[in-house]
């Protein structure tokens, strides 16, 4: 059995367009007044077909439309992509098909159309339940608009998740916990809760470098927010199955589990990444970032792939550990040791003594103490 089968096989489709660029966002997203939807449909189909020629026969466990703002896509484009994926690989009967949506691009009839196209899960970018903070985050919707869009989504999809950002400017732990409890009262079965990170190359990054991004919570208060988030979500029956994701039992994001369990996944669209096992060799593939360049490459070559790299076993081991340790279930040391040499027992013992990791049988996972400083724990494990 190829290693990727431990994690499954997913398809990620990147829609790069947004109505506006959020100041904290470092994703490959672009504001464009005009989009030729027919051209994009053809390019997606072309790249999917090329990907299928690399993988050979597979069955698809999950599909994820991300962005950008995929709810700006025409439902016909979504349907075309799903139908093509089913034609060339076959979609498993219980596959998860997720589409990210922003409240500003939601209409009741659009959700009906997305559902009819084959989408069975919606992930909404609400980000805050405070109107002033939404403005500070550059969001174009109000809390009221977000809640109305969320209600519409619940009527048409059994599985609906939404995102919130915490450790925002001028936010205290007390304010966040109040907001979180309100969110949990609303939640269906899944929440993604991200601590605000300041990324270089974003507007927030520029302001931070100039000392003008004021009011960010100090590190110790941000850490308290993370730990409190774990406890409060548990009270409401949502377990933290990944660093930033919380779900009721069996409601975890199956598509993201493909990544974190180090399965294979196709990446379609500008700036999309892929990990594919091709003739037994784990391979990293990256597409052109610029939408126009990606389209031109598709027209010329039938795909927008810019870079292909065969991954060494050492590279695979590093990626596997970095992804799987984000999960509460942790890493399978048997898988890791097939890719790389064993982690020295003395190093594991030291981290266990510090209370950062636990080992149960052949499973290694970060503790509640280790998860907030996971990057440091990984650096020790991989040195």
Overview of the molecule:
The protein has 383 residues and is an alpha/beta fold. The protein has two domains: 3-259, Alpha-Beta Barrel (TIM Barrel), CATH 3.20.20.70; 314-382, Arc Repressor Mutant, subunit A (Orthogonal Bundle), CATH 1.10.10.920. 41% of the residues lie in helices and 24% in strands. It is built from 14 helices and 17 strands. Strands 9-10-8-7-6-5-4-1-11 form a nine-stranded mixed β-sheet, with helices on both faces. It has a three-stranded antiparallel β-sheet with strand order 12-13-14. A hairpin with a 2-residue loop joins strand 16 (357-360) and strand 17. Helix 1 packs parallel to helix 2 (75-88), helix 2 packs parallel to helix 3 and helix 11 runs antiparallel to helix 12. The protein is globular and about 55 Å long.
CATH level 1 name of the largest domain: Alpha Beta
**Could you say what the CATH architecture of the largest domain is?**
Alpha-Beta Barrel
Oligomer: single chain
Mean pLDDT: 92
What is the alpha-carbon Rg in Å?
A: 21 Å
Instruction: Determine the CATH superfamily of the largest domain.
Output: Aldolase class I
Between the first and last Cα atoms, what is the distance in angstroms? 29 Å
Main sheet strand line-up: 9-10-8-7-6-5-4-1-11
CATH topology tier name of the largest domain: TIM Barrel
Number of DSSP helices? 14
Structural class: alpha/beta
Tally of discrete structural domains: 2
Which word captures the global form? globular
